[in-house]
Amino acid sequence: MNTAATPATPRIRGFRRVIVLCAGVVLFVAGCGESGTDSSAESTTTRPPASQPAGGGAEGAPAPTTPEPAELAAWQQIEVTDANGETFAIGDLVGRPVLVENFATWCGNCRKQLGDTQTAAAAAGESAVFVALSVETELDASDMAEYAQQNGFTDIRFAVMSDDLLGAMYDAYGNTALNPPSTPKIAVASDGSAGELVTGFESPEKLRSALGLS
Description:
Elements: H1 2-46, E1 80-82, E2 87-88, E3 98-103, H2 108-124, E4 129-134, H3 141-151, E5 157-160, H4 163-173, E6 185-188, E7 194-198, H5 204-210
Parallel strand pairs: 3-4, 4-5
Antiparallel strand pairs: 1-2, 1-5, 3-6, 6-7
Helix pairs in contact: 2-5
């Protein structure tokens, strides 16, 4: 019995060695496969598509933002009726600089200043808006159209103040704003912010300069 068992021991040990070696090979191959899968998954999740570079815009630049309009004064939000019978408010004109000139049809100083304002408006074209507001609240659109045509003021938008706008102008700038012979004028920037009240005669060049035009 002991003689038969002795030769079998080395054979069993040999099989064990083969099994251990095979198991090691299997584990090694499996480990290589798992390592390759992880590497592939990492590359697809961390690299952005070629058509969409990291950072949002082109070359990672942030998207441009549009500045917010300025807070409008009360008088800029009150509607008026122009010489064509259309209603609008000064606040509707945000996006272009606006010259607001208060006047009266009976005022000689106003007519003289409006002549220079017409020259400035014609030179500015579509880059700015020139508005003449009559303090005569009883006038209608036909009166304004006739006044503009007779004097050749073709590039100025004429309108008549309402009682509400008259009061809002007084609250904002005082009685000077409603005194036509002083030729009161207000320059409004393209973002809607209104400047100070200016009086006296001003040349076409100075009017354009007040609106930031060359």
